[in-house]
Amino acid sequence: MCGLLGNAKLSSDFYSTTCPNVTAIARGLIEQASRSDVRLTAKVMRLHFHDCFVNGCDGSVLLDAAPEDGVEGEKEAFQNAGSLDGFEVIDDIKASLENVCPGVVSCADILAIAAEISVSLAGGPSWKVLLGRRDGRTANRTDAVAALPLGPDSLEILTFKFSVHNLDTTDLVALSGAHTFGRVQCGVITNRLHNFSGNNGQSDPSIEPEFLQTLKGQCPLGGSLTARVNLDPISPDSFDNDYFKNLQNNC
Q1: Counting Cβ atoms within 10 Å, is residue 57 exposed (0-12), middle (13-18) or buried (19+)?
Q2: Global pTM?
Q3: So where are the chain's domains?
Q4: pLDDT tens-place string over residues 81-104
Q5: Annotated binding residues, as ranges?
């Protein structure tokens, strides 16, 4: 269960007296899990983003569907189903924290802490995580489908989806840089490789030719739509600026 916190102003030292080792415990478990799963840090970062982008950072993405209680699982949203991952390590962190400070740390805050740790472990920046979030009591699959970005979304649609959260185009570009690590399922990109703009056999002409052939080899026509390819072909498990370099090279 994800405990509920009362109203409070967010603060980086929110748990300094009630659960002072929260970050150390989370870091230890993420470090341990990432040794057996190189994709874990990217999974956790995505999990936090997909939580925050649907009605705020309230941990609702962790809730399983419970129709009898009116809970629509966000996990079943098109953008999440079969691809959103990293739940196990969040569960492990929650269980460990319940042993030392039961009922204190919200699941929403665990996600925020875990995301910062994951980016840092992958070689990215570190930052002070503001804490004190309350956990949501419900989830909404319909809201998730409407709010979360999709690969085929136009710039206009993406700009609108970000503007709902008071994020501008600078934020859109910066946050897109998180695609510097992790994987993508072939089903997300197959139309750009084999059926661009509805033209069977045509590929997106903006993709660098050599890179296009590499992608076609990894995601062949008629192949598995759940097979995964690296988002960043250079350093797929590192949080760096190669994402933007690759864009400039049409890769």
Answers
A1: buried
A2: 0.90
A3: 22-147, 155-248
A4: 989 999 999 999 999 999 999 999
A5: 51, 54, 56, 58, 60, 74, 149, 179-180, 232, 240
